[in-house]
Amino acid sequence: MTAMATPPPKPLVAAAAASLAARARWNPAEIAFWLAAVASVFLLPSKHLILTEIAILGLFAVSLDLILGYAGIVSLGHAAFFGFGAYAAGILAKYGIIKEPVLALLASGVLAAALGFVTSFLVLRGSDLTRLMVTLGVALVLREVANQLDITGGADGLQGIVMEPILGHFPFDMFGKTAYIYSLVTLFVLFLIARRIVNSPFGLSLRSIKGNPLRAAAVGIHVNGRLVTIYTIAAAYAGIAGALLTQSTQFASLSVLDFERSADVMLIVIIGGTGYLYGGLIGAVLFKLVQDYLANVNPQYWQFWLGLILVMMIMFGRVYGAIMAALIFAICTWTKLPFMQSIVFTLVMLAVLGLARPQILAVTSRITERAAAAQKSLRARLPRKPAEH
Amino acid sequence: MLTILFDGIAYGMLLFVVACGLAVTLGLMNFVNLAHGAFAMAGGYITVILVNRLGLPFLASLPLAFVFTAIVGVVFERTLYVHVYAKSHLEQVLFTIGLVFMSVAAVDYVMGSQQQFVSIPSYLQGQINFFGVGIGRYRLLIIGVCGLLTVALQFALASTRFGSRLRAAVDDARIARGLGINVNAVFAITFAVGSGLAGLGGALGAEILGLDPHFPLKFLIYFLIVVTVGGTSSITGPFIASLVLGIGDVAGKYYVPQFGSFVIYTIMIVVLIWRPQGLFSRAVAK
């Protein structure tokens, strides 16, 4: 790009740098989050399998958050890159092309990034709806390709993958400890990079594109270039997440490219909140725990409750919607209602809540206001920190 | 050769009947209803129940399927959908995916996960030999019914009072209200008819498309292709798109089965990139 005709005044640059630095500062909650993650390695040895899944899902969600939460690109086919990475890692390992897992992981990420770069030009044009359809179409095409090719094993999936020890020293064990530590370290490293990216001037420019692409272009941001870049990066992240899944389960099947996978990751990011990276991680934890719980209670039909949560969250906002969905579920569970009656009960509740939505929203917004006011007055009463000199 | 063409036309007609409701909600009301397939599924299952369990004649159950799904549609529209019209496309997508998940699980539980078959009366089975071309009677029925519906729809939208009210309500809901049009009622009726048509399509297509609880997800992409490729500003666009899609899909599966649905998805992407507004629509600058 061309150099600017006149450099911006120095104080402005300094102020911008200071605000960027303030964004990038670590706050205690973040440190606590990662300490908890490290602690889980030692404290929850029996849960390593599900924790690995959470870490992988979290990485996948961070990837979607990069394009959805920061650049505002909606996608219903993000599983394309996840699945591509998963198959890439599987093929690399099965045919002994790259035996060392970390190198294979990187290679899968690079391959997925290449795919992301190529397909990124498809999402530059059109409205949200066009983007949703195009991304969905790309994922479906890939799924069809994986279904037809011999090298991917078709509908049977890619079987007979044997993983070498990580870095030649740490073999995968059957309890999933190595896999969990490996996934967690990968997640942490990539998270640090993502954090650096979104807190850089580049990240800020993405936010401005999300806010208003036309204005962003007017202040001299190369909009399409930035979108291509972040889409490629996000594809690499998703590919690495997929590769982690293949490496830790030593199996890749068509389900990595399923529509449900794209829908799930979208749901995760929406649950956790978009545009602050941790949303994906928190969403992944919540989603997996809820899914695990529902699948235990209602093995075959847990998707019903998942759907209910989605519907309620859109109708009544994230928090209140989730609470209402949980209440309906709790009533059905506590009264030991058979599933048939639960369906009827839920549908009736949906209709009633839908009709009463304006009243409910009035109540919930008052609660939110009260809570905010209470928080404010509590803060005012607390002794202030000594001012910095 | 001609038989394949004929089957393709029947298939395309079915897709059109199911998808035209979606074209209306998406194109006219600007609402992304991914749960549209669920209404088609409801129509299919209601026919299965009416014909197989209650022993109603097949032809009598078709209007019932239409009415039933239309009622379900209007109830959902009045209680749930109406709150989501003003939200962003992304939220609409999530909302309707939630409904799809619920419908899949509920139908799976109530009706079982196996594929359902409607027992078609004997006079609709078999083929008629017409100048050496084998024509399935059932498919002939489909083409007849769907053809009539298409003409009726085009007429209703283009030359009736209701059609012009609907178009006015879509163009600018506020002004339309100011002119004394009951926009909510117009939308509700449109939605009911759209769902009813989906139900009818599902009932007719249970035999050809295959009916199981995953129907809404399996055919979601087909309906969307019809709507996005055909454009949403008219009825003729989706109609031509569904015919092409139907013939292409049937012929593709017959001649080059190894390609599967690959070709169709690719065509959709190319069309969307080339003409984001759809093939047959004028570019709308909004």
Structure in words:
- The complex is a heterodimer of chains A (389) and B (286).
- Chain A is mainly alpha-helical and 389 residues long.
- Chain A folds into two domains: 40-284, no CATH class; 312-374.
- Chain A is built from 16 helices and no strands.
- The mean pLDDT of chain A is 85.
- By secondary structure, chain B is an all-alpha fold.
- Chain B has a single domain, classed as ABC transporter involved in vitamin B12 uptake, BtuC (Orthogonal Bundle).
- Chain B is built from eleven helices and two strands, in the order H-H-H-H-E-E-H-H-H-H-H-H-H.
- Chain B has helices at 2-28, 36-53, 58-79, 89-111, 137-159, 161-171, 173-178, 183-209, 215-230, 236-255, 262-274; strands at 127-130, 133-136.
- Chain B has a two-stranded antiparallel sheet.
- In chain B, strand 1 and strand 2 form a beta hairpin.
- In chain B, helix 1 (2-28) packs across helix 10.
- The longest helix of chain B has 27 residues, at 2-28.
Features:
heterodimer; A: 389 residues; mainly alpha; 2 domains; 16 helices; 73% helix; 0% strand; B: 286 residues; ABC transporter involved in vitamin B12 uptake, BtuC; two-stranded antiparallel ribbon; 11 helices; 72% helix; 3% strand; disordered C terminus
Summarize this, please?
Chain A is 73% helix and 0% strand. By secondary structure, chain A is mainly alpha-helical.
Helix content of chain B: over 70%
Global geometry of chain A: globular
Strand fraction of chain B: under 5%
Number of domain units of chain A: 2
Per DSSP E runs of 2 or more residues, the count of β-strands of chain B stands at: 2
CATH architecture level-2 label of chain B:
Orthogonal Bundle
User: Number of helical runs of chain B?
Assistant: 11
> CATH topology of chain B, anyone?
ABC transporter involved in vitamin B12 uptake, BtuC
Structure annotation, total helices of chain A: 16
Radius of gyration of chain B: 19 Å
Helix-and-strand structural type of chain B? mainly alpha
Largest sheet of chain A: none
The biggest beta sheet of chain B, please?
A: 2 strands, antiparallel
How many domains in all of chain B?
1
Q: Uncertain regions of chain B: pLDDT < 50 for 5+ in a row?
A: 282-286
The main sheet of chain B orders its strands as 1-2
- Determine the strand fraction of chain A and express it as a percent band: under 5%
Q: Count the beta strands of chain A.
A: 0
